[in-house]
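Lab notebook, bench 4. Still working through the backlog of constructs that have no structural model yet. Next entry is a single chain of 132 residues. Request: give me the structure tokens for it.
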Amino acid sequence: MKLVIGGYAQGKLNYILQEINADHYVVFDGSIPDEIQLKKAMEQGKNIIINHLHSWVRECIAKGGNPEEEILSFLQKNPEAIIISDEIGNGIVPMDPFEREYRERTGRILVSLASLADEVVRVLCGIGQKIK
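Model written out:
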């Protein structure tokens, strides 16, 4: 698994698409593929890119889901996936309790994913820097 992080609008997806053969991947934006989508991608011989993981985490928490378990379950079945997420933990701590929970859980998920990843890249101004 490859994890790509960086700030908002820093060119993370474009960076990845320039680094890989995009014909061998399908991009899911702010979502994780369900079983039908996953089966279709596998039948086509395509790997998965999850773009905007942080948006999926927010939605999953809002619906009462368990994003920590769900993303790990997905990666067990798809170890070649590329995960792209904004860094959301910098700056002012939100006053809203949900926003604080979302920010903290997303950060902890990214820490967990980074420890599992074969490679971690931070993208700033469209330039990737391998940090693991």
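Notes after review: The mean pLDDT is 95. The helical segments are 12-19, 35-43, 53-62, 67-77, 97-116. Flag for follow-up if needed.
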